[in-house]
Amino acid sequence: MAILALGVLLIAFLLGLLLGGPYINLLRRLRLGKQIRREGPQSHLTKQGTPTMGGVLLILIVAALSVVVFALLPESLRGDYVAQTIMPVGAFIAVGVLGAVDDYVNIVYGFGIRGRHKLIWQLIVAVVAALYIQRHFAITGVFVPLVGDVEIGAIAFVIIAIIAIVGTSNGVNLTDGLDGLAGGTSVFAFLSFAFIAAARGFPWLVVLCCAIVGALLAFLWFNAHPAEYFMGDAGALALGAALATVALTTGFIVLLPVAGVIFMAETLSVILQVGSFKLRGKRIFRMAPFHIHFELLGWPEEKVTIRFWLIGALAGIVAAILAFVTPVK
Q1: pTM of the entire structure?
Q2: Which of 227, 183, 322 is nearest to 24 (CA)?
Q3: Phi/psi of residue 29, nearest 5 degrees
Q4: Which has the closest alpha carbon to 129: 163, 97, 100?
Q5: Per DSSP, what are the bridge partners of residue 196?
Q6: Where are the domains of the chain?
Q7: Which residues pair with 143 in a beta bridge?
Q8: Which of 126, 195, 277, 297 has the highest local Cβ count within 10 Å?
Q9: For residues 221 and 16, is the Cβ–Cβ distance under 8 A?
Q10: Which neighbouring-strand residues pair with 149?
Q11: CA gap 77, 109 in Å, rounded
């Protein structure tokens, strides 16, 4: 199984490299360029018109490899494969479609889909995924690091699952503001849960995580500063939803805020900023999400990205180690 996971990772990476250039040229011909907010850092205005919707290619590569793996598996293994991957892949595609529509609307009209309308679609996907995972795997508890399985009941698990899927989807989207930032931190988060899935006996989740990591690494080849294209909402929203469903399936949803600490921090920065301004009329950060705060403090974009990567890598290692030392029986 490890060889299969490695093979899928390498194939996803190679496909991303081979298709990345032609896909960027296609986006340019179609004039699908990013609309940059005028109220953001002035340095970002140079990115105006950079091709976006790179997440569509990510989704196509992962979806295609998922189908190929299914087709190559013997009949006896297909049931487990589908059971473990149908919700992460389904959420990846379903939320990715929402993100792609939002990207397109933003390009054409200069503004995206309203937040509450996006939330409705995210909630539908989250409810379906949460109910399936809870019922199929009969999950009524969560694994707490160093403690073990803690019973919380099916209803509580479903509620936590819905919050996790919607929250992580939006968290990755908020993080997607600098070249390479969301892609790099997502690589570390998915790698972390690949190891956690392996420890929990979910081999097909490992294969799926490796496919996403491989596609992301190829995306970063073109997204490294200065970015040749962006993933857009199509990629960011989809990655967050997929990551949360993977975490829920393993039972280690408690470790999602650890492995995804950057996503959680970016989300909290926006909540705190908005709350502080409404309640006190004062801002906590120069601008939120807080990766922009550090830019406005004078950090170069590349330095913000690399330092956030380092935090994400460390957090992913910590999450994986905590999972390995937690009793699961």
Answers
A1: 0.95
A2: 227
A3: -65, -35
A4: 163
A5: none
A6: 2-324
A7: 149
A8: 126
A9: yes
A10: 143
A11: 47
